[in-house]
Amino acid sequence: MAAATSLAALFVASTATAGYAGVEEVNAPTPIEGTPGQYIVVMKADPLASYEGGVDGIQATKPAEGEQLEPESQESLRYVEHLETEQQTLAQEVGVTPDTTYQVVLNGFSAQLSGEQVDKLRASKDVYGVYPDFIRHPDAQSSTSFLGLGDDKKGKGGVWQQTGGVDKAGEGVVVGVIDTGIAPEHPSFEGKKLKQQKKDKNRHKGSQPYTDGTTVYFDKSDGGRFQATMVEGQGWDKSDYNSKLIGAQYFSSGAAAAGFDFQYDYLSPRDGDGHGSHTASTAAGNFKVKATVEGVDLGTISGVAPGAKVSAYKACYVGPDPAVTTDDICAGSDLIAAIDQAVADGVDVINYSIGGGAASTVLAPEDIAFFNAAAAGVFVATSAGNDGPDPVTADHASPWYTTVAASTIPTWEGTVQFDGFAQAGASVSVPFGQTVTGPSVYAGDIPASGASGADAALCLPGTLDAAKAAGHIVVCDRGNNARAEKSQVVKDAGGIGMVLVNVPGGSDSLDNDFHAVPTVHLASAYRAAVLAYVQGGTDRPISLVGENTTGVTTPVPQIAGFSSRGPMLADGSDIMKPDIAAPGVAILAATNNDPDEAPTFGILSGTSMASPHIAGLAALYLGERPNAKPAEIKSAMMTTAYDTVNADGSPNRDPFQQGAGQVDPKRYFNPGLLYLNDVADWTAYLEGKGLADFPGDPIDGSDLNVASISIGSLASAQTVTRTVTSTEKGTFTASADVPGVNVTVSPSTLTFDRAGQTASYTVTFDNASAPVEQWATGSLTWTSKKNTVRSPIAVFPVTADAPAEVSGTGVDGSTTVEITPGVDGDLALGLSGLTPFTLLEDPDGRVTGHSGDESSGDENKDVSWIVDVPEGTTLARFDLDSSDDAGSDLDLTVYRVVSPDDLRYYERWQSATGSADEQVTVAAPTAGTYLVVANVYATSAPMTWDMTYAAVQPEGEGAFTANPNPVPAVRGEKTSYDLSWSGLEAGTRYLGLVQYGDSAVRTIVTVE
User: Fold this and answer.
1) Which end of the chain has the smaller Cβ count within 10 Å, N or C?
2) Alpha-carbon distance 829 to 842, whole Å?
């Protein structure tokens, strides 16, 4: 079943207040950015990739086990037509003209909507969600040799040779790259002219791509067919397609709706930025392509899967400043259109080097699209983001794709030398084997007239005193402006060289930029020593050497300082991200060129560069095992990965930096054990998180059968279950280590008589001495005579395991609350309330003693109130209760708005199930004005309904106490305390809250 389909309305927290007023005529709430706006409308019915039947006369189109999606089958065409009709009907009902429609991995459309149209669509039972269009940005020795794929000359001595040679590496597989487009003239994408012939009804594995003049066809190794429309546009025509580059399309309606100025790019698949060509050539570019940058011969480059085909989907466009990505645009609606088209065309792998900051959910529109792409058998690699080294910065939180961190590889180095000092850094601008020597000066000490020392230290344009910089090697601090611009500033001021030093606390990656003067880029650890020397005298000499002369090999692979880190706080922290690390620093690959210019190459760094390595390795895997599912490939990569290293060469075992570790292609074809999962597992996970409603039983998030283990809340012993499928005969023995946590694996040995057998085991975690409210990390390894199979572990010991809710009755009474402490000693209980629920009365005054009846509401059947949430509120709850539970369907939406007179909103929460009653709850709501909207969606008989709310304050009504308080706690041992209340008003319902120590653990208390 598709995620977009039956992803029932989210039960998300919401807010309430201490005063209200009826709203006679409520203008539709709109996003804080204002209306009109561009939106993505996701409908509830299954998209093509995961439709399992149910529409009269149309059979299921979801691929069967081991098969691929067939978008051109008669059933698929009929179902797509059905979805198009439903989309058109919905759009007409609300007066919308869609810009783009989606049917394959998402069922919906993008369109410019008014606030009233947004409101109508969100109220529709056919709509899962209405999302403001969003903006993303590209996450911007050879890596293939470092990964052990083969040597750079003939591709021998590694994985390529084992799979039949470079021409066979990824053969029969199509890699889809969603990015900034592609440079068709580049030798990385060179191929034979497409043979022109009519579409062949039969499929022939191993045949060459061909065209009928409008469409490219390619029969893949998995038995499926790639089929993509040929397009034309600025700087692009049908002759740009060939036997290597078999697909290229572009999507721009979302960017146009956002008012983007396309004059700096091409409205065509042509790459105007270089990012897309770089990622595509890294994943699947041709083998042994000679590369030069600014006249410097840098050897050759190869894609990870040089035998694979490439199909480019341009959804990102470059702005006026090529040095930054902030003026570029990747509109969400265009990205989803690209994903939808890529899966419809029949790609096997998608690379998605696009980011939008730390993930806040596993069900963003992109995540839903990728859910269905994975359901269709497409492997998706995504970049983790470039917001490191801070924690909780990683993007792309969902378990059905692979999120990639960036690591270093041996790269071009230079050395900074002066008396008593020699340290290596990144450099391609000091000629190899040559030395540049000159007097030194710190840029911060030579500001130009009118410039500050702080600006001069950063070598900002126009800040250096040319009289003092001329003839010198200038030391510049990293930050603020582009690194290459700093060297141009030095050159403009007459400098002969530059030492670029990272600043402690900032980004500490080392980058091989092409500088205007000879430059060596040093890590922050050496800044103090360099400045002490340079500022300790006048014109002290420094030498820049075009190689590493220190005799010390720089440890690799290290996780790049910019690489975004976990943990993922999205939806409970029970999924660990990133998943794996791959080369992403100083990667040499193809870049962009104009139609009449020579192809170019560039050295780029970012998780954008790491992700296509994983995409290429997935293509390489599928070349050998065409019917492998995404989870198999991901598991094989993760369990065979090895630890990255720290700057001092010691092992880095932090899973929030490296995931499972550095990918190791030399091992991943023989992983020993596989952790397999599919749509049924993902839906059970989502249902267990309360994010969706699917048939079948929910599971705890930690029990999703992935190759890592993460527990977002551990107060007492918790057991997780995993099932593994063997790839070899033999016995595996478990060993596990999480410092401070007792880990028990049962059974501790698994024996398999043959490959393909499955077995299950459990792992029990019990905190012994690990600090609470902090992550404890480690690993579990299964070892056989042939193999080691390792999974990273992260658990979060908490202060207590307590019930989410308890209830009691009576004006005077008590109830016993059982908890399991996660700490020893006195555990303080913080009580708030009790606060009475308040009835929001019928604004029309027609239904006495209730909020409304079956006839209530405006033309949309909405009834609305304004409430004010006071400062200090610890918990708020809104309850919508129908007198007719069997025959009515009510919905509830709450908005935190700008003011009673300005109904644009900052936050929105909704409970819109198919039941009569709805409830919304939020902890520690932001004080302010809230709009509460009850929708009388359906009724079958006369009835009444009540809308009530309570905003819990630290001090409440009556007496509310806990005994004992504090609770004598023994970690892991169950205990209890009594909650008592007195002096309450009969016939009134109350709400309270218990918080445990300084933690976020809480118990909600209701008293009738």
Assistant:
1) C
2) 38
Whether the CB-CB separation of 359 and 395 falls below 8 Å is answered with yes
3-state helix, strand, coil in the chain (%, to 5): 20, 35, 50
Edge-to-edge strands, sheet with 37-43: 100-102, 108-113, 37-43, 127-132
Q: Where are the alpha helices (DSSP H) in 30-180?
A: 74-94, 115-123, 143-146, 159-162
Sorted by sequence, the CB contacts under 8 Å of residue 1003 that are 6+ apart come out as 802, 803, 804, 805, 806, 817, 993, 994, 996
CA-CA distance, 76 to 111, in Å (whole number)?
25
pLDDT digits (tens, 9 = 90+) for 130-154: 888 888 766 545 677 777 787 777 7
For 178, the 3-state DSSP assignment is: strand
Q: How far apart are the first and last CA of the chain?
A: 40
Beta strand spans in 837-917 (E): 838-839, 852-853, 862-869, 875-882, 889-899, 902-911
- Closest-CA residue to 43 (of 99, 89, 112): 89
d(CA 250, CA 230): 11
Q: How far is CA 316 from CA 131, 184, 236, 354, 370, in A?
A: 19, 17, 16, 9, 18
Residues 401 and 76 sit within 8 Å (Cβ to Cβ): no
3 state DSSP class of 732 = strand
Tell me how far apart the alpha carbons of residues 843 and 113 are, in angstroms, rounded to a whole number: 29
Count the Cβ atoms, other than its own, within 10 Å of residue 453. Answer: 13
User: If 0-12 CB within 10 Å is exposed, 13-18 middle and 19+ buried, where does residue 190 land?
Assistant: middle
By annotation, the residues acting in catalysis are 179, 275, 608
Q: Cα–Cα distance between 862 and 716 in angstroms, integer?
A: 45
Spatial CA neighbour of 216 closest among 224, 203, 225: 225
Closest of 24, 21, 29, 117 to residue 898, by C-alpha: 29
What pLDDT band is residue 424 in, cutting at 50, 70 and 90?
very high
The per-residue DSSP string of 681-725 comes to HHHHHHHHTTS---SS----GGGS--SSEEEEEESS-EEEEEEEE
Residue 877, both tokens: 């709850």
Give CA–CA dist 562/435, Å, rounded.
30
The position carrying tokens 């109220």 is 123
Task: Compute the average pLDDT of residues 195-207.
Answer: 88
Question: For residue 598, which of 588, 610, 590, 606 has the smallest C-alpha distance?
Answer: 590
Q: With b meaning 16 or more CB within 10 Å and e meaning fewer, what string describes 737-769?
A: ebeebebebeeeebebeeeeeebebebebbbee
Dump pLDDT digits (tens) for 16-48. Answer: 222 333 333 334 444 444 456 889 999 999 999
d(CA 941, CA 853): 10
Q: What is the pLDDT of residues 322-361, one digit of tens each?
A: 767 778 899 999 999 999 999 999 999 999 999 888 888 8
d(CA 143, CA 302): 9
**Given the DSSP bridges, would you call strands 497-501 and 519-522 parallel, antiparallel or unpaired?**
parallel
Cα four-point dihedral sign 123, 126, 129, 135? negative
The predicted model scores a pTM of 0.85
What phi and psi values does residue 656 have, to the nearest 5 degrees?
-80, -15
Give the other-Cβ count within 10 Å of 338's Cβ. 27
